[in-house]
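Hey, quick one: can you model this chain's 3D structure?
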Amino acid sequence: MRAFMKNAAQGLHILAWLAALCIGTSAVADDFYKGKTINFIIGSAPGGGYDSYSRLVANHIGRHLAGRPNVVSQNMPGAASAKAAFHLYNTAPKDGTAIGMVDEAIYLHQILEPHDAKTDATKFNWIGRILPNSAILYARSDAQVQKIEDVFTKELIVSASGAASKLNWTVLKNLLGVKFTILSGYQGSNDSVLAMQRGEVDALSQPWSILKITAGQLLRDKKINLLLQTGAEKDADLPQLPRMIDLARNDEERKLLEFFASPSLIGRSVVAPPGLPAERVAELRRAFMDTMKDPEFLADANKIKLEINPMSGEALQAAISKMGDIPESVVVRARQVAGMK
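Sure thing. Here's the predicted structure for all 341 residues.
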């Protein structure tokens, strides 16, 4: 009996020690963000879809993290968001105090240009997707091109301020022979819209969720024409508007255009540097999904008419890891039509 009591007492001491350890570990995790600031790096200039969605998340995610850190938005445009991606991958602290949003074509470029890639999209910690992205190419109503079929015979001067748009238009030009003249010197969609209004360019692309709000009056006044959707899936609002994939003339072209439409899956996603502690990644992902359901967040999104269609960080990470499962023959041909050696 005495031996039993002794063993029972030892067992209780062990349980008490384990409980204290768990409480201590939880307290450390809960206190990590207390008094800290998270820098939200935005890989584009102010204005436009990336900036709007980034700031919306940055304004709310801090309330869903233990310690309620301050979250500061920081625009870091340059090289179609490659500057921001490089910063997050190589320079930013790897402790959860730096997150951000980069161009959706980040992994596509990595597959196409593996020797030049300065980041590895599969090693980023993907926190969650706000919504997929199908950009809409649109043009001034007085442009030569009135519908997408016209680009096979008439010139269209297109502003491409992002990596995904520049790549899409280059591929269509080289693969199908469309008469695009591509200008990539404008910083963000706001500058591109102003350039279109000044007559410097004929067209540009923006996500439909942004375009139907920012250009609502232009649409109603029929001052712009919608030409093409870039995503793998058609937007429910635009069932009659052709996709980039629909321009394919044979199976080979379709496979290539499906490959180039794949960034629409990433869309507007939040990413963190590689090398974060697993518990920090889990905490950020949980906070992200809690933010997506937050009534205040949804009210703000509705107020500025931004659509939300989230995907968890775990599901997004798994999807990105599978993007590299492309036959080498397709990749070789894709490099050719993308204008890469």
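One thing worth noting: Residues 195 and 201 are 6 Å apart (CA to CA).
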